């Protein structure tokens, strides 16, 4: 063997020693071992993570369930969320904790409880901690940002008094002191009360004084029969969740007559200051009434408290922000001896504003009484400054019953009354009838289409322009052959007005009407739909144009809006806007009609009273300075049928110009007119200087 061969052989032996295949297998085994260790380690950590995450979720569920029941005021369910060891350490029980929650939260009159910012975490020592914030309304209003902290052991909350209200420890109590703010009053122009605060006797019972069994039943029945309260009402009152055996449970506010009755043995009374409406039914639709807040009220208005009384209708509701008082007082934590430790809520007492109206209480009462229960309304306005002196609607309801807690029986009587006593007729819109002829005539005079001395020859009680009107006829009451403007007013002639309106034409007539307040929203503190000329604002039908000229067609004008429009005749063409607050600015619209047209119409309206043929001549016997116009608007489906008739009277003193009155009767009975329901009111108004 040569040296080279021997050398090659040795190299081959060395190459076999470092075989790469064997080395690769060894590396794989090592890698597999490492991966196995990693998987095992990751599994251990993953298991621990999932277990920790599951535990956190379970503890979050505990706090979520607890706070949900707290926000729903389910106090009787809270105790079982606390662990027994922590309760035993505090020498308390689940039932005792439930009772403390009920007592404290009822005592501060907690409502609308809301929870936010709920957090649960595990601290460095392995203990689970939680926190949340609470907000609620109390007897003093909104109480916010109460922050709670606590711990959880074995998926149950560790009890501590600070979970009732932050800052409480041991046997601490809650002290509530309230200074009632006085709601602002509403007065008439002379300061006489229209909505006042008055002391009443409130009837109630103390449950432990009723006895048990038959004795309790007998006492409840005696109280129920004496004061016209149902037994069920009393039983529900004393079964309320906040009631304790020694608590006074209110049942109703007694009227002056009820307060004079002999008090049954188990009944009690206490003084209470409550809203009172001296004019009762006579001003109910105007003034409205107050009532207890609802849950919806509390949610929408942070300034309200659970015991707030707010306006529910009329001016009580419209002026709510001005009238509302703010109760003052303090909610504080005290120790078991009554020493104050921490103030949770403190509010300054504020009384509401007093609002003086332009209403004349005596005139308001006379107007209501004179309507005598008929469906109708009266509006009286001072045409010189717009002051509304009377706003009454009939039939009406007793706002004192509504405020004091109306019985279902009394409410049903109102609600089922076919004359609709809850309907406000001085804001409802109606076809104005013949009182509107004053406006048609004034527009025609200014447009030059009506010459007051021109005489129209009219034959019969029915008329139509031509055969294109089909069967439709304009009708009138008096068969007067020769009619000028003055006679048209005296006799209230529909045919004269229809013919003059057609002569005027749609464009001229609407242009004149638009100078008034059609489509305008008046600046008054109650809702009212603007007056309309027609459904679409046009008068492009000859029949509709003619009908509108004498106050029918599709005209819709409320009594307040009518009174406002008619001020032009007492103010020589200037329209005066109505106002209800005594200190409100007087607003006017100049030259709605000319001075000449206004004075001419006013002179004719004097004749409507003084002329024996005038439709308002019965007022002449009053020997008063009067200008007046009557009106009847008939509502029917077909021309030849009899329909509902609404009667109107416009009247004012053309000399003093210190009032202008519009009275309306809805669906008047035979022989009944707005005129004969206005006599006493006119007598009173003419005495005013």
What does this structure look like?
The chain has 689 residues and is α+β, with helices and mostly antiparallel strands. It folds into three domains: 54-171, Nuclear Transport Factor 2, Chain: A; 186-356, 2-Layer Sandwich (Ribosomal Protein L30, Chain: A); 364-394 and 427-679, DD-peptidase/beta-lactamase superfamily (Beta-lactamase, 3-Layer(aba) Sandwich), CATH 3.40.710. It is 35% helix and 21% strand. The protein contains 22 helices and 25 strands. The strands form eight sheets. Strands 6, 7, 8, 9 and 14 form a five-stranded mixed beta sheet that branches. Strands 16-15-25-24-23 form a five-stranded antiparallel beta sheet, with helices on both faces.
Task: Enter the CATH topology name of the largest domain.
Answer: Beta-lactamase
Output the CATH homologous superfamily of the largest domain: DD-peptidase/beta-lactamase superfamily
What proportion of the residues is helical, as a percent range? 25-40%
Quick one: how many beta strands? 25
Residue fraction in strands: 15-25%
Give the helix tally.
22
Largest β-sheet summary? 5 strands, mixed
Q: Judging by the overall fold, what is the CATH architecture of the largest domain?
A: 3-Layer(aba) Sandwich
What overall form do the CA principal axes indicate?
Answer: elongated
Unreliable sequence segments: none
* Rg result: 41 Å
Domain module tally: 3
| Structural class category | alpha+beta
- Summarize model confidence as the mean pLDDT: 91
């Amino acid at each position: 063997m040569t040296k080279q061969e021997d050398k090659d052989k040795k190299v081959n032996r060395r190459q076999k020693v470092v075989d790469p295949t064997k080395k690769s297998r060894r590396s794989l085994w090592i890698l597999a071992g490492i991966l196995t260790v990693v998987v095992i380690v990751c599994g251990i950590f993953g298991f621990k993570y999932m277990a920790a995450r599951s535990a956190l979720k379970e503890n979050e569920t505990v706090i979520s369930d607890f706070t949900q029941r707290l926000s729903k005021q389910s106090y009787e369910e809270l105790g079982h969320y606390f662990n027994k060891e922590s309760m035993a350490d505090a020498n308390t029980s689940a039932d005792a904790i439930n009772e403390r929650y009920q007592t404290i939260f009822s005592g501060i009159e907690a409502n609308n409880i809301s929870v936010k910012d709920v957090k649960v975490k595990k601290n460095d020592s392995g203990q689970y901690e939680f926190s949340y914030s609470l907000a609620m309304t109390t007897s003093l209003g909104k109480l916010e940002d109460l922050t709670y902290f606590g711990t959880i052991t074995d998926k149950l909350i560790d009890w501590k008094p600070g979970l009732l209200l932050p800052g409480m420890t041991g046997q601490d109590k809650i002290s509530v002191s309230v200074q009632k703010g006085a709601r602002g009053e509403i007065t008439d122009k002379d300061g006489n009360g229209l909505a006042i605060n008055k002391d009443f006797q409130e009837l109630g019972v103390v449950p432990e004084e009723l006895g048990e069994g038959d004795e309790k039943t007998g006492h409840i029945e005696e109280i129920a029969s004496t004061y016209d309260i149902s037994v069920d009402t009393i039983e529900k009152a004393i079964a309320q969740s906040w009631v304790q055996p020694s608590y006074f449970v209110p049942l109703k506010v007694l009227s002056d007559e009820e307060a004079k009755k002999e008090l049954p043995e188990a009944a009690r009374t206490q003084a209470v200051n409550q809203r009172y409406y001296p004019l009762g039914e006579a001003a109910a639709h105007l003034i409205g009434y107050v009532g207890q807040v609802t849950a919806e009220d509390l949610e929408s208005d942070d300034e309200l408290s659970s015991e707030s009384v707010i306006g529910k209708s009329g001016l009580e509701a419209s002026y709510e922000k001005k009238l509302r008082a703010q109760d003052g007082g303090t909610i504080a934590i005290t120790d078991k001896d009554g020493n104050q430790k921490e103030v949770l809520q403190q509010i300054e007492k504020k009384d509401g504003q007093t609002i003086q109206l332009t209403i004349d209480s005596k005139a308001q009462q006379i107007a209501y009484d004179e309507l005598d229960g008929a469906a109708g309304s009266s509006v009286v306005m001072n045409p010189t400054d717009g002051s509304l002196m009377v706003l009454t609607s009939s039939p009406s309801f007793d706002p004192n019953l509504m405020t004091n807690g109306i019985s279902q029986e009394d409410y049903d009587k109102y609600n089922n009354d076919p004359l609709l006593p809850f309907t406000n007729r001085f804001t409802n819109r109606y076809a104005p009838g013949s009182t509107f002829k004053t406006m048609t005539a004034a527009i025609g005079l200014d447009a030059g289409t009506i010459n007051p001395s021109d005489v129209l020859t009219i034959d019969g009680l029915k008329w139509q322009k031509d055969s294109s009107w089909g069967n439709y006829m304009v009708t009138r009451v008096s068969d007067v052959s020769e009619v000028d403007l003055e006679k048209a007013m005296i006799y209230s002639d529909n045919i004269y007005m229809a013919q003059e309106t057609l002569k005027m034409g749609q464009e001229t007539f609407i242009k004149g009407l638009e100078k008034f307040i059609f489509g305008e929203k008046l600046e008054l503190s109650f809702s009212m739909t603007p007056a309309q000329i027609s459904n679409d604002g046009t008068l492009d039908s000859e029949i509709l144009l003619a009908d509108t000229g004498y106050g029918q067609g599709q005209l819709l004008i409320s009594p307040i809006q009518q009174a406002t429009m008619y001020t032009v005749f007492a103010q020589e063409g200037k329209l005066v806007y109505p106002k209800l607050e005594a200190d409100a600015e007087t607003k006017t619209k100049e030259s709605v009609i000319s001075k000449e047209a206004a004075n001419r119409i006013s002179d004719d309206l004097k004749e409507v009273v003084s002329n024996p043929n005038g439709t308002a001549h019965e007022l002449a016997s009053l020997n008063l300075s009067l200008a007046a116009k009557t009106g009847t608007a008939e509502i029917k489906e077909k021309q030849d049928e009899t329909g509902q008739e609404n009667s109107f009277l416009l009247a004012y003193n053309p000399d003093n110009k210190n009032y202008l009155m519009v009275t309306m009767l809805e669906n008047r009975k035979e022989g009944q007119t707005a005129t004969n329901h206005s006599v006493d009111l006119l007598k009173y108004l003419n005495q005013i200087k």
